[in-house]
Each structure stands twice: as C-alpha cells, then as structure tokens.
Amino acid sequence: MWADLRDVGRSPATGGYRRFAFTPEDGQLREWFEQEAALRGLDRTVDRAGNLWAWWGDPDSDGPGVVTGSHLDSVPAGGAFDGPLGVVSAFAALDLLHVQGFTPSRPIGVVCFGDEEGARFGVACTGSRLLTGALDPDRARGLTDTDGMSYADAMAWAGRTPHLLAPDPPAMARIGTFVELHVEQGRRLIDVGAAVGVASEIWPHGRYRFSFTGRADHAGTTLMADRADPMLTYAMTALAANKQARSRNARATFGRVSVQPNGTNAIPSQVTAWLDARAENPANLDAMLSEVSRQATERAERDGTALEVAVESWSDLVTFDATLRDRVAAALGGAPVLATAAGHDAGVLSAAGIPTAMIFVRNPTGISHSPDEFAELGDCAAGVRALADILRDLAT
Ligand code: GLV
Ligand code: MN
Ligand code: MN
Fold it and tell me: 368 C-alpha to center of ligand 2: Å?
C-alpha cells in the first residue's frame, strides 16, 4: 500500500507531497482507496460530504459500527505520513484481524475524510465538518482557492456534485465509535521511549486572515517618511504574534503571505497574511489574538495603513471521551497519554458527540507538515497491531 501511494503528488525536487482537494492527485488517491476496499470485499459508500467509506459488515442493520481511518490530502510540500498512515494502517489492521480469524460482532468501517488540511480553501477538515453539520454547505461551496476558483467549481471540475453537499445524519448514525491513528507531530513519544501513544485532547485552533492595505508607490523616489507601506505593518505583526505566543505557551505562525503587486521596486499596495494560532484553551487563544490585533492596529495607524482581520476557520478545544481513552490506553498496555496542538477529523467527530479516540505513532524526527516527517517501519507495525487490538476490543 505504501509503495502504491509513494509517488502520488510527490515533488522529486523536495520529496514533499502536494495533494490538494479536487485535483488529479486527490482523484488518484480516492481511486486507490476504492480499490483497496474492493480488494478486501468491503462495501463502499460515499456520504453527502464526499467522504469515502468501506464497511466490513452492515452498519445499517447491525450498527452503529466501529470506524477507523484518516485522510489522504496534504499541506503544500507535506510529509508522506500525516493522513495516509492512518488510512493504510486501517486497512492493514483489518487484514491482521482477518488473518487472526476474528469475526466482528459489530460492523467495522474504514473512512477517508476529504480535505482535512484545508490547504486549498483555507478551512480545515471540510469533509468531516460538512458531514457533521459544523460547516454550512453554502459557505463551503463559496470558499475560493488562490486562483479564485470556488469549492463548488473545483468539485464540479473533479466530476463531483456540489449541490449534494449536506450534513448526512444517516452516515453519522453508522458511527458508534471512531478511532483515528496518526503519525505523532511532535517529540513526546521520543522523549518517553514509546512506539505508540493515546490522545487526551486537541488544543483550540484558529486561522485568521490579516489584510494590510497601504499605498503603492515607487521604491526609489518615495521618501521613507512619505510611505504607507503595509509590509512594515505586517512585519511588526509577525514579530508581535511570535512574542505573544512565546509568553503564553501558545503557538502563532504566519506561514502564508500574498503581496500585491509583488514587485521588487514597488512599495506594496496590499499584504495579506494568514495567522495560524493555537493555545491550551479558548480564553488564552482569544487573549492572544486580541493582543496581536491590538498591536497590529496601533502599528497600522503609525504606518498610515489599514488592517482588517477575518476568521477563516475555528476549532474549539476537544477533550476526547475519557472512558474510551482509558480503555484504549489500557488495551495498549498503559500507553502514554498526550495532548496535541494539531487538528484532526477525530476532533470534529468528537465535537459532534461521537466517542472518539486517537492513537499516535512515534515520529523519530518530531517534524511534520514537511518532507522530514517520518515513522520507522517497526513503529508503523506496532501502530497497526495496536489499532487491530482496539478494533477487536471495540467490535467484540
Ligand atoms: C492539521 O494538521 C493542522 O493541525 O493544521
Ligand atoms: Mn496535517
Ligand atoms: Mn492529519
């Protein structure tokens, strides 16, 4: 399975993956999922949000079922493991249960959520959010990518049907429990010397668009005192965000910037920059955003620029079901329990009231959203065994 996926959307120059929603790569990955499901004789369905499902057993007559899986899309220049490890491990865990002669007394499902990273349209986890009703279908259809193409048009381009997008209560009713396996996106499991761990919670996470507007002019002839340069306001805002995050044990990142007109010898008219911000709780996150916005606005006044801040995506604090978390940790022989500041479809399902757990697999680099993301084969196998043990426990 890993070999089949290895080259899809991979840049030979950087080794990074680009697997955005509704692109040819996305289509290839979805086809791969369908083929793996068919090979195993699983029943395949697509929900109204476009997520792919494969079932061992019938969740409509014998459900709700135990579901595992993850996503196959990536950030720009992403790693191989964030998402695909959870989908490949789900199929591999089913294979292991099959070899062990296990017959589930509840249906077991494998899911591939669409557009988890939100890399193309800005909103994270659109597949699971549309499914649960956390994202309004009209808002989703109207989101645009950097070329101005709408989510609806991109879907139609990919041969999908945007007018069908809707929450899907029957698909939700099939999910009794959800367990997502994911590569760890940090160093906790290295530090404690464990191949697998269990999630306790996901930090709240916001994505904000900062639009700084100034006045385009000549880089040579315009006196420094006569400028309204939005790049200066942005630069100071990036520094302020970094300082605020450090002082609050939070995270703040400007990882994407667009400059107009983007000429070396022109003062910019506009800088748009996206802030990804996360903190231990919503109050800390709100306080950090307020302080960064306040400092940015103050700086804009001094620079003669204007600032607008818009929320593009918001994910509340997720505390995973404690009973399930303890059951999973116990089934894994007392695996370490850790919080994460990375977002996941598991968080969206948990917020929708589904008992949900996550298993993390050690990443020896500790790096993620980068080609350096990694997991050793032995740890991946430990993850598959752990997932199979949990599915067996939950589906008995
Ligand atoms: C998704 O991986 C996120 O945390 O942004
Ligand atoms: Mn990710
Ligand atoms: Mn992921």
Answer: 7
pTM score, two decimals? 0.96
Instruction: Using the atom order of ligand 1, give the atom closest to the CA of residue 82.
Output: 2
Q: How many CA atoms lie within 13 A of 389 on its CB side?
A: 16
Nearest-angstrom CA–CA distance, 129 and 127: 6
Kindly state if the Cβ of 277 falls inside 6 Å of ligand 1: no
Alpha carbon dihedral 148, 151, 152, 158, in 10-degree steps, equals 100
For the chain, the straight-line distance linking the first and the last C-alpha, in angstroms and rounded, comes to: 27
- Element of type H or E holding 26: helix 24-39
B/e letters for 309-332, b = 16+ CB within 10 Å, e = fewer, are eeebbebbbbebbeebbebbbebb
How many A from CA of 305 to the centre of ligand 2?
A: 34
d(CA 385, CA 389): 6
Q: At residue 149, what are phi and psi to the nearest 5 degrees?
A: -80, 135
Which pLDDT tens digit goes with each residue over 147-164?
Answer: 999 999 999 999 999 999
82-137 pLDDT, tens per residue? 999 999 999 999 999 999 999 999 999 999 999 999 999 999 999 999 999 999 99
DSSP letter string, 83-120: THHHHHHHHHHHHHHHHTT---SS-EEEEEES-SS-TT
